[in-house]
From TrEMBL:
Transmembrane segments: none
Name of one Pfam family that matches: PilZN
Gene coding for it: ycgR
Limits of the Type III secretion system flagellar brake protein YcgR PilZN domain: 17-121
Protein name listed in UniProt: YcgR protein
Cited InterPro entries: PilZ_domain (IPR009875), Split_barrel_FMN-bd (IPR012349), T3SS_YcgR_PilZN (IPR009926)
Natural source organism: Pseudomonas fluorescens
Gene3D superfamilies reported for this sequence: Electron Transport, Fmn-binding Protein, Chain A (2.30.110.10), predicted glycosyltransferase like domains (2.40.10.220)
Highest taxon listed in the record's lineage: Bacteria
Keywords: Bacterial flagellum, c-di-GMP, Nucleotide-binding
């Protein structure tokens, strides 16, 4: 039942973008949406987060924001090759870099400048439809396990077949580590709690509203949990489509 989605919701094969126009417009999409980027250096397990702050099709260049944690800069300075990966509404965008990014400062912030990639992988994964929850229906979640001294409680903001976005009151960014797998993530779904391990892919504290936002990817999900997630996403999709239909009148 829950996999009986339209054919357009099926996963699409990845495309390799090679023209400057395609590449620049795709990177600008990540920049305009302020989508977080995950940087991984070859043969190193640690992950780093950054953002695109500028893309120029004319000069075929790009600029990245300061890496978090910042100690990844030494790998850049060593010229180590790395991969950059971002996600936008179920689309995975990834490219390889040969490590030739120059470090500088702009308005007191560290930035990294370099050439646009020659190839970008663009993977439209429709089965990773991300369903947002209405504010009145936010689901309670708990993040815990061996990697945390004490569990942290928050709210589920949206969910897809592969992960979800979370909200926590206050600044908990110092308690969490980007790229870390937390073995106990519990979400109180309407039809029963689900428990699985998750990998932290995004972390940002917004001091103006005193809220920490986090993005996690489900890790080694069991078949039962996968069916729970699919059921919940399907339910939210159905509600969203009904809401959109009502809006037409």
């Amino acid at each position: 039942m829950f996999n009986a989605l339209n054919a357009e919701d099926a996963p699409q094969p990845p495309k390799v973008l090679t023209t400057p126009l395609e590449i620049a417009s795709t990177l600008r999409m990540l920049q305009d949406s302020h989508d977080p980027l995950i940087i991984t250096f070859h043969e190193r397990s640690q992950r780093f987060q950054s953002y695109l702050v500028d893309v120029s099709r004319d000069s075929k260049t790009l600029v990245l924001d300061e890496m978090i944690p910042r100690d990844g800069e030494r790998y850049l300075e060593n010229g180590e090759p790395f991969r950059i990966e971002g996600f936008h509404d179920g689309v995975r965008v990834a490219w390889e870099s040969n490590g030739t990014l120059s470090l500088s400062e702009k308005d007191g912030h560290r930035i990294y400048s370099g050439n646009m990639p020659n190839e970008v992988v663009y993977h439209q994964r429709r089965n990773a439809f991300r369903a947002a929850l209405k504010l009145a229906q936010l689901v309670n979640i708990e993040l815990g396990g061996e990697k945390l001294k004490a569990p942290v409680n928050g709210k589920l903001l949206d969910i897809s077949a592969t992960g979800c976005k979370l909200r926590f009151e206050g600044d908990i960014s110092g308690r969490l580590q980007l790229g870390q797998v937390y073995d106990r993530f519990v979400a109180a779904l309407p039809f029963g709690s689900m428990t699985t391990a998750v990998e932290l892919r995004y972390l940002h504290f917004e001091d103006k509203i005193n809220i920490t936002f986090a993005g996690v990817r489900f890790h080694n999900m069991s078949g039962l949990v996968q069916r729970q997630v699919e059921r919940f996403v399907y339910q939210l999709q159905r509600e969203a489509r009904r809401f959109d239909k009502d809006d037409d009148f």
